[in-house]
Design goal:
This protein is an alpha+beta fold and 660 residues long. It contains 20 helices and 22 strands. It has two domains: 296 residues, Transferase(Phosphotransferase) domain 1 (Transferase(Phosphotransferase), domain 1); 341 residues, Periplasmic binding protein-like II (D-Maltodextrin-Binding Protein, domain 2). The strands form four sheets. Strands 10, 11, 15, 16, 17, 18, 19, 20, 21 and 22 form a ten-stranded mixed sheet that branches. A six-stranded antiparallel sheet has the order 1-2-3-4-6-5. Strands 7-8-9 form a three-stranded antiparallel sheet.
Length: 660
C-alpha cells in the first residue's frame, strides 16, 4: 500500500480512503475503511474514461458480472456506483498477494501448493460459468493468494452471450500467453468457458515453473506461439504436466470440462498451511498493517467450509526477496558488471512475430519492398511499377544504381535485407509494415546507392544461415558484432562467417525515474536497492554478477515483459531497471510522453551492432560501408537516430568487423 497523494480522494461513497493499492490504464484501486472498521478495495475509473458513455456501460457490466458471482474463491461486490460522476466499485478485502508478485519474489510454488491453488481456481471458475459468464482474462495478476486460499478478481472483460454487442468487432480481449487460441483467431470457434480452462493451464505452468506456457517474449510472439506451437511443459512435475497439457489443448472441444478437472484435482483445502513461509510471512505483515477488526492469525485460518466469504481484490506491492544467496566475491576486486569473458550479448528474443496477414497467406517469410522515399510496396516484395520508374529505368529508384554494387544487384535494382521485425525501436512491424531505426537507415542507404530495399521477415536464429544460402543480400537486425559471427565459430559455426559493418553502439542502460531522485549514477549505487529487469536477458545476467560483487545485495525483481519492468520503476516499486540501450532510450522518451523515466549514466558494456554481409561479397560490403560513411558525414545518419531517440548510440564512422 502506498500513501495518498495530494489529488487522491479521501472519501468514496461510504468509505474513508486510507491508501493506494495500485492502478493501471483504466483507473486506480484504493484501500478504504467502512464505518464498522472493515477494509475494502475501491476500484475507480479515470476522469477521462468517466466521460465516455461506452466505458460507463462496460464498467456497469463489470459490476453486474461481479455481483452475479459468489463463493469463497471469488471477490464479491460490497457496494458500487457505476453511474456516479466518478464510477466506483468496492469489494471486501483481506490480506492477499498476487500470484505474479508471489512467484516473482519467492520463486515457483511447491507442487502441493499448486494443486491447492488449482482446486480453488476450479471452484471459482465453476461459480463464474454457472451464471453464463466467461472470465476471459484469468492470469497470475488476477489471482490473489490469501490465508484462506486463492481469490479470482477483476471481471473487467467478463463475457456472456447477452453482452456480445458490447465487444468491439475484431478485438482480442485478454492477455497474450494466457489467452486461448480461439481468442486470437477472430474467425475461430465461439469463445466459451473452455477459454478459461486454457488460461488455467497457463496459470498452472506459471505457478509451478515461474514462466508462462509459451516462454517470455513480446506479445505478438506469444500470440503466434499460442496458435501454432506446443506449450513448454518439461519443467512441470509429472503429476501436473498431464493436467496442464490437457487444459492447453488447441481445440476447445479437447479441453476437459470443469467437473472432470475437479475430480482429478480433488477438493479445495484445507488451506491452513498451504503457502510457503515467505509468502505467509508477507500476509501476516499485511494483516497487521491493516488493523481490520476481522483480521485473524494467518498462520491458522479456519477451514473453508467454516469461514465467511472473505475475499481479496487487487495486488498489493509486496516486499521483495533478495536474488538468492550470493556466492563469495572474487579474491581480486573487479569493476562491478565487468565480466571476465562475455560471449557477446544477443537480442532478447529469437523468434519472429508473424502478422495476421502472413498466417492467412499460409505462413513463411514476409517481405516488403521499401521505396527510396521510405514508402512500402504493397505487393509483398514484387518490384512492380506502382512505385514509380526512375530515369534509368529501374522501378522506384530516383537514381541509377551505384557502380560499386555487384552486377546482379544493379540489374534488379533491389537489395534484399533479412531481419527479424520484432525488436522496437530498431526494427518492428507497425500497421503491418516495417518500421524502426534499422528500416529508416536501410532506406537511406538504398537512396544513397540508387536501389530499393526489400525487408524479408525471418526468425532471428536463421538470419545468418539465410545470408549464407543467398536468401538475403544483407542482414540488418540489430545484430551484435562478435568474433564468432565474423569467423563462423561457436554458435555461428553453420554460417561460414560474415563481415559486419558496424553502425550503432549499444549496451545496457540504467533507467531511473525522471529527475533521478535517488541520485543513481554508477552501477555500484544500485547496491541495496530494488532493481527491475526482464528475465533471461543480458541485463539480468549483469545484475546477478553485480550482486556477487557488492557487499549490500540488490533486490532483483525479474519480470516477463518490458512493460512490467518499466511500470515497476514508474510506480516506485523499484529504484531503477536495466535494459538494452535502444529499447531503454526509446521507452524513456516516449512512455507517458517522456514524463516518467530517464536514462542515467552511459551504457554499460558497450558493444557494436553491425550490418552482416557474406564474406565473399566484398563489393557489396564496400559499397554499403561507403554509403554509410556518406550518411554519417552529411548528418542524415544522426537525424535518423534522433528520430528514434537513440542518438546516444551514434558512431563517428562505419567500421568493418570493429576496425579489425
Amino acid at each position: 500500500m502506498r500513501p495518498l497523494a495530494k489529488n487522491d480522494p479521501r472519501q468514496i461513497g461510504p468509505f474513508r480512503i486510507i491508501g493506494l493499492l495500485g492502478g493501471g490504464g483504466m483507473g486506480r484501486v484504493y484501500l478504504g475503511r467502512a464505518a464498522d472498521g472493515r477494509t475494502v478495495a475501491v476500484k475507480t475509473a479515470r476522469a477521462e474514461l468517466a466521460d465516455d458513455q461506452g466505458f460507463r456501460t462496460r464498467f456497469a457490466r463489470e459490476v453486474a458480472a461481479a455481483q452475479r458471482v459468489g463463493g469463497p474463491f471469488v471477490a464479491p461486490v460490497v457496494d458500487a456506483a457505476p453511474h456516479d460522476d466518478m464510477p466506483w466499485m468496492a469489494t471486501d478485502y483481506v490480506p492477499g498477494v498476487s500470484l505474479t508478485a508471489a512467484v516473482h519474489d519467492c520463486g515457483p510454488l511447491p507442487e502441493h501448493t499448486v494443486r491447492l491453488l488449482t482446486a480453488g481456481l476450479l471452484h471459482a471458475l465453476t461459480a463464474v460459468h454457472a451464471h453464463g459468464l466467461v472470465h476471459r482474462d484469468l492470469k497470475p495478476s488476477n489471482i490473489l493468494l490469501t490465508a484462506g486460499g486463492p481469490r479470482v478478481i477483476d471481471f473487467g472483460i467478463a463475457h456472456s452471450a447477452a453482452d456480445t454487442a458490447l465487444t468491439t468487432t475484431g478485438t482480442a480481449l485478454g492477455t497474450p500467453g494466457f489467452m486461448a487460441p480461439e481468442q486470437l483467431v477472430m474467425t475461430g470457434p465461439e469463445i466459451t468457458g473452455a477459454a478459461d480452462v486454457f488460461a488455467l493451464g497457463g496459470v498452472i505452468v506459471f505457478a509451478a515453473t515461474g514462466g508462462g506456457p509459451y516462454g517470455h517474449a513480446e506479445p505478438q510472439i506469444l500470440m503466434y506461439r499460442t496458435v501454432h506451437e506446443e506449450p513448454l511443459l518439461d519443467e512441470l512435475p509429472d503429476s501436473l504436466r498431464e493436467l496442464a497439457g490437457d487444459c492447453l489443448a488447441k481445440e476447445p472441444a479437447r479441453r476437459p470440462a470443469l467437473p472432470a478437472l475437479m475430480a482429478r484435482v480433488g477438493a479445495p483445502g484445507p488451506y491452513g498451511d498451504w503457502l510457503p513461509e515467505p509468502i505467509a510471512a508477507q500476509l501476516r505483515q499485511l494483516s497487521a498493517r491493516l488493523g481490520d477488526p476481522r483480521a485473524r492469525d494467518t498462520r491458522a485460518p479456519r477451514p473453508a467450509a467454516e469461514r465467511p466469504a472473505d475475499v481479496a481484490f487487487d495486488r498489493l506491492p509486496t516486499r521483495t526477496a533478495a536474488d538468492g544467496p550470493a556466492p563469495s566475491p572474487p579474491a581480486r576486486p573487479t569493476h562491478p558488471l565487468q565480466r571476465p569473458a562475455s560471449p557477446g550479448p544477443s537480442r532478447r528474443r529469437v523468434l519472429t512475430a508473424l502478422s495476421a496477414v502472413g498466417v492467412v497467406a499460409g505462413g513463411g517469410a514476409l517481405a516488403w519492398t521499401l521505396r527510396p522515399d521510405g514508402g512500402t510496396g504493397g505487393d509483398g516484395g514484387s518490384t512492380g511499377t506502382g512505385a514509380g520508374t526512375s530515369a534509368g529505368g529501374k522501378p522506384g529508384s530516383s537514381r541509377k544504381p551505384s557502380a560499386q554494387l555487384p552486377a546482379e544487384i544493379r540489374a534488379k535494382g533491389i537489395v534484399t535485407i533479412g531481419s527479424d521485425l520484432a525488436y522496437p525501436p530498431m526494427e518492428f512491424l507497425r500497421d503491418g509494415t516495417p518500421a524502426g531505426l534499422d528500416v529508416d537507415l536501410a532506406t537511406a542507404l538504398g537512396r544513397e546507392l540508387g536501389v530499393r530495399c526489400r525487408f524479408q521477415n525471418s526468425a532471428f536464429d536463421t538470419l545468418l544461415t539465410g545470408l549464407q544460402a543467398g536468401r538475403f543480400d544483407l542482414v540488418v537486425s540489430a545484430l551484435t558484432d562478435t568474433k564468432d559471427r565474423q569467423q563462423g565459430t561457436g554458435a555461428s559455426a553453420r554460417t561460414g562467417g560474415v563481415d559486419l559493418i558496424d553502425y550503432f553502439s549499444s549496451g545496457i542502460a540504467v533507467v531511473v525515474r525522471k529527475g533521478n531522485p535517488e541520485g543513481i549514477e554508477k552501477p555500484v549505487e544500485l547496491a541495496g536497492k530494488a532493481v527491475a529487469v526482464q528475465r533471461g536477458t543480458l541485463a539480468h545476467d549483469l545484475l546477478r554478477e553485480l550482486n556477487r560483487q557488492v557487499p549490500t545485495k540488490l533486490r532483483i525483481r525479474p519480470f516477463d515483459s518490458p512493460a512490467e519492468v518499466y511500470d515497476d520503476v514508474a510506480e516506485r516499486r523499484s529504484s531503477a531497471c536495466l535494459d538494452d540501450f535502444p529499447v531503454a532510450a526509446h521507452t524513456a522518451a516516449t512512455r507517458a510522453n517522456g514524463g516518467a523515466l530517464q536514462l542515467s549514466g552511459t551504457p554499460l558494456e558497450p558493444f557494436p551492432l553491425g550490418i552482416a554481409v557474406a564474406k565473399a561479397d566484398t563489393a557489396l560490403r564496400d559499397a554499403v560501408r561507403g554509403a554509410l560513411d556518406r550518411l554519417m558525414a552529411s548528418g542524415e545518419y544522426r537525424k535518423i537516430l534522433k528520430r528514434w531517440y537513440v542518438e546516444g548510440g551514434a558512431m563517428e564512422r562505419a567500421l568493418v568487423n570493429g576496425g579489425r
